[in-house]
Design a protein that fits this description.
The chain has 14 helices and four strands. The chain is mainly alpha-helical and 270 residues long. Strands 1-2 form a two-stranded antiparallel ribbon. It has a two-stranded antiparallel ribbon with strand order 3-4. The longest helix is centred in the last third of the chain and has 22 residues, at 191-212. The chain has two domains: 2-50; 55-267, no CATH class. A hairpin with a 7-residue loop joins β1 (2-4) and β2 (12-14). The chain is extended.
Length: 270
């Protein structure tokens, strides 16, 4: 690939393709109603933009472009940001993820979330299509959290909403004895609980890539992604190995009393 510099307002990049690839590109562009140059230009702009964005922005964008079953859990797993990366398995205390999520939404730090703060976050969400979908989701979440309908989400309201969701998930995994074992975690009975756990594992993988400087992405092997989706949709009894391994890491960190089972409070730390 050669870059031709000149005095024109735009530079030209020469891309060498095989005849077969070139023909396929033109045929595809014709079907899509686009020019080859506009497609290539968009790919280059997206490539450059990706490596000029902050790491956490790239991570969130990777989740947004993922299937829904990943987005549900991975977004929650990333919500606490770098805080969760710094926690060692031996830590005696960990802040619940909901507290980190609350801080992210409370942009002015006054201890409550106003609708205007939701609007600001939505406006910064990127491309129009993505921003529109996220804006609708944020407004829906805001409405659910604002229990007294006063237009403000307090810390207590935020926590109550979060814990309600986790309580439902805990109940779906627990066999009734008040604690969740690793076997129960890996044998999640509902597609909703499997989707969430698969998403949590994806969030863990993305964070590992950030720390290692390996870029951001979903499973390196497409077979991993297919296997995870299959499990989350009820097509397999057990999760694929990479999900099981990451859930095991989460389990070990959350099990503060080392009794090989997660209480409701410990489960909140996942």
């Amino acid at each position: 690939m050669a870059l031709r510099n000149g005095s024109k307002k735009t530079d030209k990049i020469e891309v060498r393709l095989s005849p077969e690839t070139k023909q396929a590109v033109h045929e595809t562009c014709e079907r899509q109603g686009e020019s080859a140059s506009s497609v290539i230009r968009r790919l280059i702009e997206d490539y450059v933009k990706r490596f000029h964005e902050p790491v956490i922005r790239r991570s969130i964008e990777a989740i947004r472009q993922s299937p829904l079953w990943i987005r549900v859990g991975a977004a929650a797993a990333l919500a606490a940001g770098g805080m969760m990366l710094a926690v060692l398995p031996s830590s005696a205390e960990r802040e619940p993820a909901w507290a980190g999520m609350f801080r992210d939404d409370d942009s002015n730090g006054d201890g409550r979330i106003a609708l205007s703060e939701v609007d600001v976050r939505s406006a910064a969400d990127g491309a129009a299509g993505v921003a529109s979908r996220l804006s609708a989701w944020r407004l829906e979440q805001f409405s659910e959290r604002d229990a007294d309908r006063d237009g403000i989400v307090t810390r207590d309201e935020f926590r109550a909403h979060y814990e309600q969701k986790y309580d439902a998930l805990f109940a779906s995994l627990d066999d009734g004895d008040g604690g969740i074992t690793m076997d129960e975690l890996l044998s999640a009975p509902t597609n909703t609980s499997r989707a969430f756990l698969a998403g949590v594992a994806m969030g863990q993988r993305i964070r590992e890539q950030q720390v290692q400087g390996a870029g951001v992405g979903l499973p390196a092997d497409e077979r991993d992604l297919t296997a995870a989706r299959n499990w989350s949709e009820g097509g397999a009894d057990q999760p694929p190995p990479f999900i099981a391994a990451r859930l095991g890491e989460y389990f070990a960190r959350a099990d503060r009393d080392h009794d090989a089972r997660l209480s409701r409070d410990e489960f909140m730390l996942m």
